[in-house]
Design brief:
The chain has twelve helices and twelve strands. Strand 1, helix 1 and strand 2 form a beta-alpha-beta unit. Helix 1 packs across helix 11 and helix 9 packs parallel to helix 10. The two termini are 20 Å apart. It is globular. Helix content is 44%, strand content 17%. Strands 4-3-1-2-11-12 form a six-stranded parallel β-sheet, sandwiched between helices. A four-stranded parallel β-sheet has the order 8-6-9-10, sandwiched between helices. Keywords: Cell shape, Cell wall biogenesis/degradation, Isomerase, Peptidoglycan synthesis. Belongs to the aspartate/glutamate racemases family. It catalyses: L-glutamate = D-glutamate.
């Protein structure tokens, strides 16, 4: 009954933590492609091939359902995977849709036509690859009309977070928010479009101001997954073992992950 969670590095651990709390009975298999992280500066073809390789490894670990807890992979690879790659009986879900459903005040799985929503000015903070894909805007257009999205590529932020350099990360957040505000002075909502960014949510909120509602993904994805599994209980795979897999050095990744989640995490080689 295992479910896979994939990320290019450590950011997806924020999603893993939330889904594991929400669904404690489900064994999750986490795959971090740390040897090739970050994905945010790679081209779409590269991201697609790396993502399919990682998801194949999770399928082989007994996961019929995989969550792409990587916004870059969700943006650059998911649609192509769903259209032509995913084997019969398997599912791969991304992390954009739960965010957009929350932003547009829709129930999970509501596929009614796009409509007017209260929020008109949205700031999107994401990796350069996610911004370039325009996947967030495309998914939003399926659900809402009349929403202006201003996207800010946050170069360097993932590297600073993974390196544990909080001062640099906070400085980068302020710089990226200032850059966005020059183009959109008064956003009503802000999307943290990378699973690393919840670790800097306070810095984003402080830089944006209390009047801006900040949406981050982990808890929204957890609730969406719980709802999905109620509707599709057959998607719980055959795996029974919780695992943390990495393409990087397991010792180094384990140490960084333990700092990330403030508890001991042991990775093994994928």
């Amino acid at each position: 009954m295992a479910v896979g969670v994939f990320d290019s590095g450590l950011g997806g651990l924020t999603v893993l933590d939330a889904v594991a709390r929400r669904l404690p009975e489900v064994p999750f298999v986490y795959f971090g492609d740390n040897a090739h992280a970050p994905y945010g500066t790679r081209d779409a073809e590269d991201v697609y091939h790396l993502t399919t390789e990682a998801v194949t490894r999770l399928f082989d670990s007994g996961c019929d359902l995989v969550i792409l807890a990587c916004n870059t992979a969700s943006a650059a690879a998911l649609r192509r995977m769903q259209e032509s790659w995913i084997p019969e009986g398997k599912r791969v879900l991304g992390v954009f849709v739960p965010l957009i459903e929350a932003l547009t005040e829709r129930q999970w799985g509501d596929n009614s036509p796009p409509r007017e929503v209260a929020v008109k000015h949205v700031a999107l903070f994401a990796t350069p690859a996610t911004v370039a894909s325009r996947a967030f805007q495309r998914e939003l257009a399926f659900r809402a009309i009349g929403v202006d999205v201003e996207a800010q590529p946050c170069g360097g932020l993932v590297d600073a977070i993974e390196a544990g350099d909080e001062m640099l990360a906070e400085a980068l957040v302020r710089s990226h928010v200032e850059a966005l505000k020059r183009r959109m002075p008064h956003p009503q909502a802000a999307i943290l479009g990378c699973t690393h960014y919840p670790l800097m949510e306070h810095a984003f909120q402080q830089a944006l101001g209390s009047q801006v509602k900040v949406y981050s993904q982990a808890d929204l994805v957890a609730e969406s997954l719980a709802d999905y599994l109620v509707r599709h209980p057959d998607m719980l795979g055959s795996g029974t073992q919780r695992m943390f897999l990495t393409t990087g050095d397991p010792t180094i990744v384990s140490d960084k992950a333990s700092q990330f989640l403030h508890r001991r995490i042991e990775f093994r080689a994928a």
